[in-house]
Structure formats: structure tokens, C-alpha cells
């Protein structure tokens, strides 16, 4: 019997937030994580990295108010990529605050109404994957509010951080890394929950996995991106889905993912397996 069908949705991590560093915290909105960058002790402005699921705007602003205080406001949004579960509140954030949005130049067609993402691949297995053809993949329209990330690898309004091109899950997917403390914001380059399985999403059973299989069209690029991130030897990582991972557990899990990528990450069948 499919174990996805057995678990009621009572253990999901929606609403969970945690500080990862004095100036970095994350919030889970339904099934996806977003991050805040900024020191509450030093400023009332902050950067949002990804904007969660649709209809998350009010929850995000509540969390920001709780962390940064009344009158606080975002000064920029950084997108790891433009899938619907990472841009859910970006249009409302732009409308409310007029902030700039930064993404890799290869992601801009999906953020300016020009191009839809490739179709989902439900054949990869798991109940979430079976539902994936119903997930939105049409582009959003941010117009002149969205800008390409700087070519020098710096991240606007996040001094000491650099962006790393980690395609595979999407053409312009990026991850963010701070060398000083080796903190990694990985987006969906890899995740710490088996995102295809509803049972594991609900229970948030932590395990290293590649990018969500149903929305990943380029597995060769995805493998190279994981190798690139593992080589950084991050001390801690927050991924787009699942709880943060750190220390020896992260090091060993990433090494295993690199070594066994074809077994752990690549589905046995699916629309993009042989492409």
C-alpha cells in the first residue's frame, strides 16, 4: 500500500521558524522555506530570500515584524529561482514596498511573463509528484522590478555573501554562500526531505535528497551543482524544503549525495531522465 496515503497532515512544519545565525533566520510556509537576512539589533530593514507559497504574504510580514520590529520593511528580495512555491508572495511584496527583486539572468523569462517552466514529471513516483501536473508553472510578471544578479557574484544588500549558479532544477537557479561562517542557502539545488513523498513531507523525515524530482528537467546540471556545493564544505545549510542540516551530518550527507547521486537523486523513470 502506498504509504503516502496513510499519514494525516498533522506533522507538517508550516509556520516553523528558526535563527541560523544572528543575522539569518528561516520560516517555513506550508511546504517550503524562505529566509530573512538582517540583524534585528542593528537595523529595521531586511532582505527576503525567496517568498514562499502563494498567499504567504501576511504570514511573512508577521514573522518579519516579530523579528525586526514595528515599522520594519524589506529592502530587497533575492530569488533562488522562480518556481511557484518560491515566488508566492513576491508580487505582493513588490506592490506593498516597491523593493527590487534579484534573480539570475537565465531565470528572468519566468519572472517577466515571457516563458513558462517545463511540464512536471509525475512519473518519478510519490504522491506529491502525482499532484505536480496541477502545480502552477506559468510565468509571473515583475516587469522592471526584477533585475539580474550582479555579474561579479556579489549579492545586493547582503555583504559578505556570494551567489553561485546551481542549475538543473531550473536554468537560473542560484544558491547563496557566506565564506566567513560557511553558511549555505541552497534553494532547491538539494533538499533535506524526500519532497516527492507526501508522507515524508508531512512527517518532515530528514534525509538528504537531490532537487525535487518532478520539477527537475536537467539531471546532468543538477549533479554538477551538488558537486559544486559539496566542495564548499558548508558548515550549515538551509534548503528550500526540509529542516536545516549542519556539522558532520551535513558533511557526510552531502558526500553521500555526490557519491550516490544517480541512486539517491535521479528517478528511475520520468519525462527528463534520459534528456
From TrEMBL:
Matching Gene3D superfamilies: Ribonuclease Z/Hydroxyacylglutathione hydrolase-like
Residues of the Metallo-beta-lactamase domain: 31-241
Any Pfam family hit: Lactamase_B
Name of protein: MBL fold metallo-hydrolase
Source organism per UniProt: Ectobacillus ponti
Organism lineage: Bacteria, Bacillati, Bacillota, Bacilli, Bacillales
Amino acid at each position: 500500500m502506498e504509504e503516502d496515503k496513510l499519514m494525516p497532515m498533522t506533522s507538517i512544519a508550516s509556520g516553523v521558524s528558526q535563527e541560523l545565525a544572528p543575522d539569518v533566520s528561516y520560516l517555513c510556509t506550508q511546504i517550503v522555506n524562505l529566509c530573512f537576512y538582517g540583524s534585528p539589533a542593528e537595523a529595521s530593514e531586511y532582505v527576503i530570500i525567496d517568498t514562499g507559497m502563494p498567499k504567504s504574504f501576511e504570514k511573512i510580514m508577521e514573522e518579519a515584524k516579530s523579528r525586526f520590529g514595528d515599522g520594519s520593511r524589506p529592502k530587497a528580495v533575492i530569488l533562488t529561482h522562480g518556481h511557484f512555491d518560491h515566488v508566492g508572495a513576491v508580487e505582493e511584496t513588490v506592490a506593498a514596498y516597491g523593493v527590487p527583486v534579484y534573480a539570475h539572468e537565465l531565470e528572468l523569462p519566468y519572472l517577466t511573463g515571457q516563458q513558462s517552466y517545463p511540464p512536471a514529471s509525475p512519473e518519478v513516483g510519490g504522491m506529491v509528484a502525482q499532484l505536480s501536473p496541477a502545480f502552477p508553472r506559468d510565468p509571473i510578471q515583475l516587469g522592471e522590478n526584477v533585475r539580474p544578479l550582479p555579474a561579479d557574484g556579489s549579492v545586493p544588500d547582503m555583504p559578505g555573501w556570494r551567489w553561485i549558479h546551481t542549475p538543473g532544477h531550473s536554468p537560473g537557479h542560484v544558491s547563496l554562500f557566506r565564506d566567513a561562517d560557511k553558511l549555505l542557502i541552497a534553494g532547491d539545488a538539494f533538499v533535506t526531505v524526500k519532497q516527492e513523498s507526501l508522507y515524508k513531507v508531512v512527517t518532515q523525515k530528514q534525509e538528504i535528497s537531490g532537487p525535487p524530482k518532478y520539477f527537475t528537467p536537467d539531471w546532468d546540471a543538477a549533479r554538477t551543482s551538488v558537486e559544486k556545493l559539496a566542495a564548499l564544505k558548508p558548515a550549515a545549510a538551509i534548503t528550500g524544503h526540509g529542516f536545516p542540516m549542519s556539522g558532520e551530518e551535513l558533511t557526510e550527507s552531502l558526500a553521500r549525495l555526490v557519491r550516490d547521486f544517480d541512486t539517491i537523486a535521479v528517478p528511475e523513470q520520468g519525462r527528463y531522465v534520459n534528456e
